[in-house]
């Protein structure tokens, strides 16, 4: 569905002495298969939107090639646009028009008949819990309703591939959770392939089959959330031993699974790869060695741990406004 090779975007800003090159995207390769939901994750300014704009033909790549839905973005932009749905960060609806009219007009722009556009629009309004809002203006809708309306606009012509740019930014937790359900339904109910950008770790974790991480214009990882977490640091296993004289035995048993065991009072802990598989055996081992536990905690690494290991910074640091962005050079 998406096949990008060496995509580059260099912006030129300012004039004279203030002239600057911004290397927003620096040679991105991407492959997205039909039916996949891919989360494109990265901090502010990492190059997510710029990559998305190149893939959706809104921006010409400085270098590199991309085929999207079977068409070349540079030479067949019209065919690409017909095959995809795009929901931008800023939204695509106009505040002074009825929601239903906008959706129908949008469908007609794609060559649908009014009758078909109305039928599909009404079906989508129902699916996205917008029933009753056909004759409502965008300006009198809640944030969550507006985002759902944006998605309906992007789906009116039944695209096989949908791009969502930070779909839940600015929404409250309940509206986010509600939108997540709808996004999951895009594949199951609409049969669409979904490529979404986000800087929310939990969003990528919850929605995507595969996560592609971009940092400063370069892809730094691409895998399932589980594999990314497992490959980086392992799960933290913390054993609280019931008696002081059993601490050493517990430490030795845990050391058979990992090198980095630490002891803090009666708490023995260490990082174990794929703890879900290893812990049952460890518990049997501890029991047969006569160790009694007060508690056991298994803490899975977060995608933030992954990002930290890959880039040396946490996503939160990277989010700070004064952190350096996409390789700007004078
Ligand atoms: N039109 C432009 N002219 C100059 N620089 C730009 C332009 N658009 C984006 N940039 C710069 O390119 C870099 C990547 O921006 P981009 O919007 O792709 O990041 P992003 O990962 O989508 O960030 P966010 O999460 O904040 O939306 C940033 O340094 C940004 O300032």
UniProtKB/TrEMBL annotation:
One of its GO terms (molecular function) is ATP binding. Residues 2-241 form the ABC transporter domain. InterPro entries: AAA+_ATPase, ABC_transporter-like_ATP-bd, ABC_transporter-like_CS, ABC_transporter_ATP-binding, DrrA, P-loop_NTPase. SMART domains: AAA (SM00382). GO terms for biological process: daunorubicin transport; doxorubicin transport; response to antibiotic. It comes from Nocardioides anomalus. SUPFAM superfamilies: P-loop containing nucleoside triphosphate hydrolases (SSF52540). It is found in: Cell membrane. Belongs to the ABC transporter superfamily. Drug exporter-1 (DrugE1) (TC 3.A.1.105) family. One of its GO terms (cellular component) is plasma membrane. This is ATP-binding cassette domain-containing protein. Keywords: Antibiotic resistance, ATP-binding, Nucleotide-binding, Transport. It holds the Pfam family ABC_tran. It is a peripheral membrane protein.
């Amino acid at each position: 569905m998406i096949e990008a090779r060496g995509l580059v975007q260099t912006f030129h800003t300012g004039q004279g002495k203030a002239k600057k090159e911004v290397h927003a995207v620096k040679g991105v390769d991407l492959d997205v298969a039909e039916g996949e939901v891919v989360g494109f994750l990265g901090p502010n300014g990492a190059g997510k939107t710029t990559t998305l704009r190149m893939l959706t033909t809104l921006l010409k790549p400085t270098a590199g090639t991309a085929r999207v839905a079977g068409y070349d973005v540079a030479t067949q932009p019209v065919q690409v646009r017909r095959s995809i749905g795009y929901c931008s960060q800023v939204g695509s609806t106009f505040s002074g028009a009825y929601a239903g009219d906008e959706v129908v007009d949008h469908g007609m722009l794609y060559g649908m008949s009014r009758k078909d556009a109305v039928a599909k629009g009404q079906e989508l309004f129902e699916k996205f819990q917008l029933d009753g809002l056909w004759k409502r203006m965008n300006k009198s809708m809640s944030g969550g309703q507006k985002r759902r309306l944006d998605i309906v606009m992007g789906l009116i012509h039944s695209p096989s591939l949908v791009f969502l740019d930070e779909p839940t930014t600015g929404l409250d937790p309940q509206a986010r959770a509600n939108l997540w359900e709808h996004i999951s339904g895009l594949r199951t109910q609409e049969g669409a392939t979904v490529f979404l950008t986000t800087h929310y770790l939990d969003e990528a974790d919850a929605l995507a089959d595969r996560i592609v991480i971009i940092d400063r214009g370069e892809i730094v990882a691409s895998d399932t959330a589980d594999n990314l977490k497992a490959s980086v640091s392992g799960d933290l296993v913390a054993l609280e031993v019931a008696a002081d004289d059993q601490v050493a035995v517990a430490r030795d048993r845990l050391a058979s699974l990992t090198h980095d065991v630490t002891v803090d009072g009666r708490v023995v802990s260490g990082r174990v790869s794929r703890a879900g598989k290893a812990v049952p055996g460890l518990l049997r081992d501890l029991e047969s060695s006569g160790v009694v536990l007060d508690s056991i905690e298994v803490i899975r690494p977060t995608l933030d741990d992954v990002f930290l290991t890959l880039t040396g910074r946490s996503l939160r640091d990277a989010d700070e406004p004064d952190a350096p962005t996409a390789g700007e050079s004078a």
